[in-house]
Amino acid sequence: MISIDIEKKLKAYRGEQILKISAQFDKSSITKIYGPSGAGKSTFLRIIAGLVEPEHGKISVDDMVWLDTLSKISLSPQKRKVGLVFQNYALFPNMTVRQHLEYVSDDTQWINRLLFIGKLETFTSHKPEYLSGGQQQRLAILRAMAIKPKLMLMDEPFSALDPKMKSELIPGLKSIWDELGTTVLIVSHNPQELVGLTATEMEINPI
Amino acid sequence: MDLTPIWLTLKLAAITMVILLIIGLPLAYWLSKGRSIAKIIIEAIITMPLVLPPSVLGFYLLMAFSPKQGIGEWLHKTFDIQLVFSFKGLVLASIIYSMPFMIGPIKSALQQLPLSLSQASYTLGKSERETFIKILLPNIRASVLTAAILTFAHTLGEFGVVLMIGGNIPGVTRVASIAVYDSVEIMDYHAANIYSLILFCITFAMVISVFVFNKYKAKSPLE
């Protein structure tokens, strides 16, 4: 069970807005997060990952406190170790597809399984600049999965994939999440994005 | 024809470059992260040798390292180190003089990398140190190489600082740029010509290599 109660000021085009979210996510659940552009969806994921600090708030994961601004507790991103898929992928230009996964895990079998699910087996020695947009996006997802995360945060993770590729990828990801008991939060604009996944929905609207 | 000044210059430039790489990488990384008053002041001090007349810098170092007062006296009495008119002093002066050429390119290359690269590495459980060595550094390789070459070349071209703090001691502090000046003083134009030509060729090759490395540098797919 993940329990989140945070408040963060956002600097927006129209002036200052406040992102105020109070939510709970069950273990192994999948939640789709939607809301208008600039509402703070990405910031919300970054706060959970420990990359952005909110002014006030508390985050606890399975009775472990990750953040409590009152008692000045804030675990580093390294200790939270969430599987974060960045909207811009944030791939490492110096590493090949396989090296991206080896940077995170030394389990060859696990790496090969991920490459198979992401259909990147034939591109293992390619660097990101030689991959298509869809391949880069799949690599970003696989890299985040490689740490076997208990919590997966995905920012528009399927936007560059065609419907066929998406419908082949999602069942593979889902089976791993089920095995690991991973809780998944997916930020998405597109209502069709999560075809094949049963997800609860959550809307983010800044005040 | 005495080629000692050329070897001495190359030795000085190589030692300066290696020491500056060791100091410069962590320092440039620290400066590239965020801004504070302390960082602005330290960066300004590092940049000063770019605009200060070398003789001024040399004069201050001469005063500071004089064995008769202050730091120089302390170093002399405690460790028996004399920096003025010695090769060690030349190395120290060169480090200060060439530091902006090492720090500048590395710092700006680090700042141009997308912040999400290091953030992605942190969420994967990697420490700041490992992220710097395995992610940031390989992606600014071309800039580090450029900075190292520029530092080397700039040390070859030192004159004012070296003359002030090192003087003109053959085999110890008499580097090539001083040997040129000295040869002209004693009307030995042949020697001046040879020293100058060697310096010209070395620095020309180095500047060419900077352009070549920058042309082929790896680009981030995010740019």
Characterise this structure.
Chain A is an alpha/beta fold. Chain A folds into two domains: 1-81 and 173-207, P-loop containing nucleotide triphosphate hydrolases (Rossmann fold, 3-Layer(aba) Sandwich), CATH 3.40.50; 83-148, no CATH class. In chain A, 29% of the residues lie in helices and 28% in strands. In chain A, strands 2-1-4-5-6 form a five-stranded antiparallel sheet, with no helix packed on it. A five-stranded parallel sheet of chain A has the order 7-8-9-3-10. In chain A, α4 runs antiparallel to α5 (133-146). The mean pLDDT of chain A is 90. Chain B has a single domain (4-215), classed as MetI-like (MetI-like fold, Orthogonal Bundle), CATH 1.10.3720. Helix content of chain B is 78%, strand content 0%. Chain B has eleven helices and no strands. In chain B, α3 (54-65) packs parallel to α9 (160-166) and α10 (176-185) packs antiparallel against α11 (189-215).
List the helices and strands and how they pair.
The complex is a heterodimer of chains A (207) and B (223).
Chain A: E1 2-12, E2 15-25, E3 30-34, H1 41-49, E4 56-61, E5 64-68, E6 73-74, H2 77-80, E7 83-85, H3 97-102, H4 108-117, H5 133-146, E8 151-155, H6 163-180, E9 183-187, E10 200-203
Parallel strand pairs in A: 3-9, 3-10, 7-8, 8-9
Antiparallel strand pairs in A: 1-2, 1-4, 4-5, 5-6
Helix pairs in contact in A: 4-5
Chain B: H1 4-32, H2 37-51, H3 54-65, H4 70-79, H5 87-112, H6 115-123, H7 128-139, H8 141-156, H9 160-166, H10 176-185, H11 189-215
Helix pairs in contact in B: 1-5, 1-8, 1-10, 2-5, 3-9, 5-8, 5-9, 6-7, 8-11, 10-11
